[in-house]
Design a protein that fits this description.
By secondary structure, the chain is mostly beta strands. It folds into 2 domains: 2-21 and 290-430, Exo-inulinase, domain 1 (Jelly Rolls), CATH 2.60.120.560; 38-127 and 138-286, Glycosyl hydrolase domain, family 43 (Tachylectin-2, Chain A, 5 Propeller). The protein is built from 2 helices and 30 strands. Strands 2, 20, 21, 23, 28, 29 and 30 form a 7-stranded antiparallel sheet that branches. Strands 22-1-24-25-26-27 form a 6-stranded antiparallel sheet, with no helix packed on it. Strands 9, 10, 11, 12, 13 and 14 form a 6-stranded mixed sheet that branches. β3 and β4 form a beta hairpin. The structure holds 2-acetamido-2-deoxy-beta-D-glucopyranose (12 copies). One 2-acetamido-2-deoxy-beta-D-glucopyranose (NAG) binds next to loops. One of its GO terms (cellular component) is extracellular region. GO terms for molecular function: sucrose alpha-glucosidase activity. It holds the Pfam family Glyco_hydro_32C. This is beta-fructofuranosidase.
Length: 434
């Protein structure tokens, strides 16, 4: 791995590697759930069984092929720690071979007010595009003010959850999620959300701003857990880590698609989207429980990096998952010439082929952090025009001191870090992590 830059102070690069391994030589991720075989899409019916201390994840599942198709089942996986998942037998089968058990959620009716102890809300075939309508039919929730929904084709997998604020966890607001496909700003599938209040029947958004849960291309059909273990947090969710634009072509076998990590949500009430507004925004933190991870290793703290003075970290003896945290600073008194693309880049090289790498970095005059996943020897990456190679997100300093503005980036590479075809999860959020 190589760090290269035009005049950046590298305040710190820390990495943590866990030797968690599977017995496969394939590209199967280690901490992102994948089914043993077959096709998977949306997570469904997430809930926590407090009696057993077990987390349940269901998902849209076609065990007979690695592409979506009927009959469609609810697959099932369980976990004791929200990191390691055990694939379980199929949980719900459709009535007929030409139909599906579509996306839905799970509600435990503790007081048995419905007369069913457990309620499954599942979309039927006719309601494929109208999850919101199903929610209204069942619970009769209505929206009090019109929301500024991004105009897309299909709206599905709505969710409503109380999320604590970061500034005061005893205070919370309600967040409504909606999945839209196609219609994402970056193309294909994405998740939109609204922040507001909920009185048991009516959700009222605080404003009509359109907010995006994740600016990356692979975060769809977010669902949150019904009931949680409070030591992990109260608002926890999983999304499908793919995009309908290319999900059917991703080169894995004998399974296709993975889930995101579990993310813990909170609301940041101080984020300023622009000088005129103060907004409440969702913040997400990954949940990772890896007991055999090594200690954080610190590299090159307080180094001034230039293009000529780059820095490389040799991780060639390591396999498993790689977590990293990059902290860097820009000297704000030095004006960076716009004619020079001034970037701080990390190049994760493939061991076998120096031409194969994953690049990410920051560009000072754009104040944006980017990811470039286009340099892989896997044909699909080069040939699929929808597999967006480059993504970026606004990155704001978490601290300014003297002449320096400090930035922080956290990332996780899952599976053998040296051949970079594995699952990459970056937090493409609007909010700077402090
Ligand atoms: C290897 O993985 C497969 C699939 O998860 C599992 O069935 C098998 O028991 C594993 N074998 C060993 C030796 O761990
Ligand atoms: C990744 O590396 C492993 C271990 O060297 C190897 O078995 C596997 O074939 C590699 N995968 C790709 C896609 O190069
Ligand atoms: C698909 O898989 C299910 C579950 O394994 C099985 O019951 C069913 O017969 C299969 N259907 C077809 C058409 O292969
Ligand atoms: C579904 O398909 C499987 C495999 O082709 C077949 O064995 C089974 O009888 C079919 N079931 C129904 C209800 O049509
Ligand atoms: C169940 O009923 C009890 C007693 O009426 C009440 O305090 C509690 O809030 C109810 N729980 C739920 C989840 O509605
Ligand atoms: C819930 O209520 C229904 C209808 O009154 C009843 O049949 C069922 O046994 C109750 N479930 C539990 C767990 O008490
Ligand atoms: C839902 O609310 C609407 C409008 O208030 C009402 O007409 C309808 O009967 C309600 N449906 C249920 C199932 O309560
Ligand atoms: C919830 O809000 C709606 C719209 O403001 C109102 O009509 C309804 O009576 C409220 N319900 C409760 C239980 O306060
Ligand atoms: C959006 O919200 C603002 C402030 O609440 C309001 O003035 C405006 O009319 C709303 N716009 C729409 C299209 O609803
Ligand atoms: C980095 O440099 C600053 C200022 O020279 C110093 O205060 C700080 O201790 C250094 N940090 C490390 C990790 O060396
Ligand atoms: C990798 O392991 C080999 C053999 O143990 C050792 O000689 C080499 O120094 C190690 N390389 C690094 C970068 O740790
Ligand atoms: C920032 O740049 C200015 C102008 O080149 C220089 O005088 C100052 O020492 C720099 N600050 C730091 C902390 O490097």
């Amino acid at each position: 791995m190589l760090l290269q830059a035009f005049i950046f102070l590298l305040a710190g690069f820390a990495a943590k590697i866990s030797a968690l391994m599977t017995n496969e030589t394939s590209d199967r991720p280690l901490v992102h759930f994948t089914p043993n075989k077959g096709w998977m899409n949306d997570p469904n019916g997430l809930w926590y069984d407090a009696k057993e201390g077990k987390w349940h994840l269901y998902f849209q599942y076609n065990p007979n092929d690695t592409v979506w198709g009927l009959p469609l089942f609810w697959g099932h996986a369980t976990s004791n720690d929200l990191t390691h998942w055990q694939d379980e037998p199929v949980a719900i089968a459709p009535k007929r071979n030409d139909s599906g058990a579509y996306s839905g959620s799970m509600v435990i009716d503790h007081n048995n007010t419905s007369g069913f102890s457990m309620i499954l809300l599942i979309q039927d075939k006719d309601a494929w595009q109208s999850g919101l309508i199903i929610l209204q039919k069942v619970k009769n929730n209505t929206l009090a003010i019109p929301l500024m929904v991004v105009l897309g084709y299909q709206y599905e997998c709505p969710g409503l959850i109380e999320v604590p604020t970061e500034q005061d966890p005893s205070k919370s607001h309600w967040v409504m999620f909606i999945s839209i496909n196609p219609g994402a700003p970056a193309g294909g599938s994405f998740n939109q959300y609204f922040v507001g209040s909920f009185n048991g029947t009516h959700f009222e958004a605080f404003d009509n701003q359109s907010r995006v849960v994740d600016f990356g291309k692979d975060y769809y059909a977010l669902q949150t857990f019904f009931n949680t273990d409070p030591t992990y947090g109260s608002a926890l969710g999983i999304a499908w880590a793919s995009n309908w634009e290319y999900s059917a072509f991703v080169p894995t076998n004998p399974w296709r698609s993975s889930m995101s990590l579990v993310r813990k949500f909170s609301l940041n009430t101080e984020y300023q989207a622009n000088p005129e507004t103060e907004l409440i925004n969702l913040k997400a933190e990954p949940i990772l429980n890896i007991s055999n991870a090594g200690p954080w290793l610190h590299f090159a703290s307080n180094s001034t990096l230039t293009k000529a003075n780059s820095f490389s970290v040799d991780l060639s003896n390591s396999t498993g998952t790689l977590e990293f945290e990059l902290v860097y600073a820009v000297n704000t008194t030095q004006s960076v010439s716009k004619s020079v693309f001034s970037d701080l880049s990390l190049w994760f090289k493939g061991l076998e082929d120096p031409e194969e790498y994953l690049r990410m970095g920051f560009e000072a005059s754009a104040s944006s952090f980017f990811l470039d996943r286009g340099n892989s020897k896997v044909k699909f990456v080069k040939e699929n025009p929808y597999f967006t190679n480059r993504m970026s997100v606004n990155n704001q300093p978490f601290k300014s001191e003297n002449d320096l503005s400090y930035y922080k980036v956290y990332g996780l590479l899952d599976q053998n870090i040296l051949n970079c075809t594995s699952t990459m999860e970056m937090w493409f959020l609007q909010i700077p992590t402090s």
